[in-house]
Amino acid sequence: MSLDQVLSRIDTDLDAAIDRLMTLLRIESISTDPAFKAECDKAADWLVADLQSMGVDAQKRATPGHPMVVGHVRGDGPHLLFYGHYDVQPVDPLNLWKTPPFDPRIEDTPNGKVIRGRGSSDDKGQLMTFVEACRAWTAVNGTLPCSITFFFEGEEESGSPSLIPFMKDNAAELTSDIALICDTSMVSPGVPSIASQLRGMLKDEFTIHGPRIDLHSGHYGGPGLNPLKEIARIVASFHDDTGRVAVDGFYDGVHEVPAEILRQWENSGFDEATYLSSVGYSRPHGEAGYSTLEQQWSRPTLEVNGLWGGYQGAGSKTVIPAEAHCKITCRLVGDMDPDDLRIKVRKHVEDRLSPDARVTWDNDLEGAPASVMNTDRPEFELARQALSDEWNREAVLVGMGGSIPIAGYFKTILGMDAMLIGFANDDDAIHSPNEKYDVQSFHKGIRSWARVLDALSR
Question: Which pLDDT value is given to residue 233?
Answer without folding.
Answer: 98
